[in-house]
Amino acid sequence: MELTPDENIIFTLQGISITATVVNTWLIMALLTGVSMLITRNLRPDVPPNRWRTMLEVIVNGIVGQIAEITERRDPRILYFVGTLFLFIVTANLLTVVPGFDTPTASLSTTAALALSVLVAVPVFGIGSRGFFGYLKTYIEPSFVMLPFNIIGEFSRGISLAIRLYGNIMSGAVIGAILLGVAPFFFPVVMDMLGLLTGVIQAYIFAILATVYISSATATPPRPDTPETAKETP
């Protein structure tokens, strides 16, 4: 039994092994790009929305609402980044019901790459919002002693993101394989349903955590004379 799609080599290109992880990642990217192009090809105010456009608007508005609740502002840059992460992960997880499809999120290399993208995005968004020195200042707050701890905390968040997503997807695949040998007609259906639910939840959690990390990096620190920090006077 293959525990990870990295073990499934599809073809070799100039001595480089192209695994199912890479191929299926390309397929998901092509699928999301093609579907978005089909849905938005007549995206004009004078064209009445169809059911696909309505579904897309519901998804986008839901993501926008979740981001606004966390960041307390509407930032389209966060929507583009977090929305892409969510749609990629949820699509990859939902496609596990397709026979023979090895989801890329069952590979630690994929989850590590997704977590790395968040690690890179956090300082990029932070520098864009606070400025270069303003963002670097957050690593020595509240004192310079906290510098190594803040750096370690930054990397540990990325590791936790990768391990959490990989562990949940892999555990579901392993349990499903075990139950398939015990009761091949009943348990696979139940596990597929639970797998779909778990996949959506894991995509949601990953996107929410990414939004929280970016929000904390881009939040403007309150000034001492603001109402939030000023002491009440009698």
Provide a count of the helices. Answer: 7
Distance between the termini: 72 Å
Mean pLDDT: 78
Instruction: Give the tally of β-strands.
Output: 2
Shape: globular
By helix and strand content, what is the structural category? mainly alpha
Describe the main β-sheet briefly. 2 strands, antiparallel
Low-confidence runs (pLDDT<50, min 5 residues)? 226-234
What's the structural domain tally?
Answer: 1
SSE order: EEHHHHHHH
Would you give an account of this structure?
By secondary structure, the chain is mainly alpha-helical. The chain has one domain (5-218). The chain contains 7 helices and 2 strands. It has helices at 20-39, 51-71, 76-94, 108-130, 132-136, 147-182, 187-218, and strands spanning 9-13, 16-19. It has a two-stranded antiparallel ribbon. β1 and β2 (16-19) form a beta hairpin. α4 (108-130) runs antiparallel to α6 (147-182). It is globular and about 55 Å long. The model is unreliable at 226-234 (pLDDT under 50).
